[in-house]
Structures are given as C-alpha cells and as structure tokens.
Amino acid sequence: MTLPVDAPLLYTPRQAAELLGLATSTLSKMRLRGDGPAFLKLGASVRYPVAAVEAYVAAVPVRRSTAEYPTRTAFPRGSRRPPRLARAGVPA
Question: Where are the domains positioned within the chain?
Fold first, then answer.
C-alpha cells in the first residue's frame, strides 16, 4: 500500500478512534489494559503509528455470528460479582 505524500505517519487518539469506530475513551481504556493498537508517547502526547492501527485492524478476527464470540464465565446464580477469594488471615 502506497501512502500519498501528505498522508500522516501518526494518528492522534481522536483520528485513530474514528478510524476504528471507537470512542476516544474506549481507545484510552484499551491503552491502559494493553489490548489496543500500539502507541507512542511523545512527551505528554499519545500518537498511533498508521502501520500499528492497520496491523491491529488486520489482527481482529472476522466473525459471521455473535455465537462465535467467546463465552464469559458466569458468576454464581443471583450474584452480581465474582465470589471472594480466601486470603491468608482474611475470612471469606
């Protein structure tokens, strides 16, 4: 793929989020969790290399049905949160 001469080499978070169809806050959370596209910190600014955004899109699996999504582990019936894990010296 050949980019035009005036094409950017780095995207701002807003540009990357728009290209990915995400909110900028979602992209920020993905950055914190480490499951989003690779990014650079230039001083206080965050930038996404064009190649990293393209690689991220290429790595996302294509699904034809919602049934193909991985299942989540269910919490115990009637519970809104996972069961507490016993810690040393702390009653459950």
Answer: 10-60
